[in-house]
Design brief:
The chain is built from two helices and five strands; from the N terminus they run E-E-E-H-E-E-H. By secondary structure, the chain is of the alpha+beta class.
């Protein structure tokens, strides 16, 4: 995850780190709440990750735990990610 850590449930990422930013995949309504509280896009400025939002820097540890629990529940309800088919090596 951009050389940082990512946390997954059923093969889907629900939380990641990008520098000092904690990014979460939340339902749209919750993502809007985070944005209104000072959160922002997650990932590189030139290409932020769609569907993820960064927590505000001033968020408390207790609030962070609540948001992470919401992200786990949201992503955990998604269908498990299917593994990509492996490419066959080229024959020479």
């Amino acid at each position: 995850m951009f050389g940082n850590l990512g946390a997954f449930v059923n093969g889907n990422m629900f939380m990641g780190l990008f520098g000092a930013d904690i990014g979460l995949k939340l339902p749209d309504e919750d993502a809007r709440k985070i944005a209104a509280a000072g959160g922002g896009p997650f990932g590189p400025a030139e290409r932020p990750m769609s569907g993820y939002v960064s927590l505000p820097a001033a968020v408390t540890p207790a609030a962070t735990r609540r948001w992470v629990a919401k992200a786990v529940a949201h992503v955990g309800a998604l269908p498990p990610k299917q593994p990509k088919a492996k490419k066959r090596p080229a024959k020479y």
